[in-house]
Write a structure and sequence with these properties.
This protein has about 350 residues and is α/β, with parallel strands linked by helices. Helices cover about 35% and strands about 20% of the residues. It is built from ten helices and 13 strands. The strands form two sheets. Strands 1, 2, 3, 4, 5, 6, 7, 10, 11, 12 and 13 form an eleven-stranded mixed beta sheet that branches. A two-stranded antiparallel sheet has the order 8-9. Strand 2 and strand 3 form a beta hairpin.
Length: about 350
């Protein structure tokens, strides 16, 4: 799974059918404020993240060095394990604001009430990275339960249950506010339909719980339906589905989905089942730091590598992105070098080397 957030600036719609290269996103580029570039080299903020983040971003750096990608990293080893890294986190945020493009792993978020807020969420809110795009696609050479998976999950990133507005009104009684606004519901709905147009997709499904949360999710659903009417004449079909049923349908019949759009919390749940912005931040779709295999050289770097190729596409470096993505898919398709999660015994280093040999 891949996750990215991108500008709402447009690119021409794709005329050909989807291919596997970088999951074939015809992603728009930032046009009003360009990424930092000096002498033909882009400066990109790199935040490896916690757990296996350092190991899988090392794979990306090794591959980029091999293909001589014109990328210079500004690396910040931010960790969410403790609040002691808050100053470094602020430096990383300044770097992102300056460079406008970043690649990051997942930062640990403590569950304890005394722990700091989620820095993953803080990044999205401070930079107004309102659209999270997770691509889920079956890959040749690695059989899974379903062979026809190819859908995009688009999640509103800045409000809903992730607004962080909680208080204890009485000892033992906690109130948590879910904030929903028409403006942000319309913004994410338009993003989803525009994404469908640009990527030759035909259907957008709104995921909600409006049968129970009639005001909050009702606003999201009704806004979606209104925006959907504007895209009917462009050949985009729309429907909606309650989150409970969506979860079941994803497991049973994922082939029915094309583009899915939903509020914040549902997107967090659905993206794990599926396992314009002035800023573009690219990261793996899985929300876990995998601390249990940290430092063992056993992590599968595929998601981070493909996230990095999506970043290259965003910067207009399509040919380099194509070659890296194709090499990655070739290694998976060959089935000779597989990490433990894919039923093999290859190390992270060996998997990375196999990709480099294909380049």
């Amino acid at each position: 799974m891949l996750r990215n957030a991108l500008s709402a600036a447009t690119r021409p719609a794709l005329q050909q059918s989807r291919t596997v290269t970088t999951l074939s996103a015809g992603f728009p580029k930032v046009t009003q404020r360009l990424p930092t570039k000096y002498g033909g080299v882009y400066t990109v903020t790199l935040i490896p993240g916690d757990g296996i983040g350092g190991e899988i971003t090392d794979s990306v750096k090794e591959i980029f060095e091999h293909v001589n990608a014109p990328i210079e990293w500004e690396q910040y080893d931010v960790s969410g394990v403790s609040s002691a890294g808050e100053d470094l986190f602020k430096q990383a945020m300044e770097s992102l604001k300056r460079n406008r493009v970043g690649l990051k792993g997942i930062l640990f978020t403590p569950i304890s009430q005394t722990g700091h807020i989620s820095w993953n969420v803080a990044m999205r809110q401070q930079l107004d990275i309102y659209a999270s795009v997770v691509m889920c696609k079956s890959l040749p050479g690695f059989p899974t339960r379903h062979s026809n998976v190819d859908f995009a999950i688009i999640r509103e990133n800045t409000e809903g249950e992730y607004s962080g507005l909680e208080h204890q009104s009485y000892p033992g009684v906690v109130e948590s506010l879910k904030v929903s606004t028409r403006a942000k519901a319309e913004r994410i709905a338009r993003f989803a339909f525009d994404f469908a147009l640009k990527n030759n997709r035909k259907k957008v499904t709104c995921v909600h719980k409006a049968n129970i949360m009639k005001l909050g999710d009702g606003l999201f659903l009704n806004t979606f339906r209104r925006i959907a009417e504007e895209y009917k004449s462009l050949g985009i079909v729309s429907n909606d589905m309650i989150i409970d049923n969506t979860s079941m349908q994803l497991v049973a019949k994922p082939g029915q989905f094309d583009v899915m759009v939903m509020p914040n919390l549902y997107g967090a749940i659905i993206s794990n089942i599926g396992a314009a912005l002035d800023y573009a931040l690219f990261e793996p779709g899985c929300r876990h730091v995998a601390s249990d295999i940290m430092g063992t050289n056993r992590a599968n770097p595929t998601a981070m590598i493909l996230s990095a190729t999506m970043m290259l596409r965003h910067l207009g470096l399509d040919s380099i992105a194509n070659s890296i993505a194709s090499a990655t898919f070739d290694v998976i398709n060959a089935g000779e070098v597989r990490t433990a999660d894919m039923g093999g015994a290859a190390t992270t280093s060996e998997f990375t080397s196999a990709i480099i040999k294909k380049l």
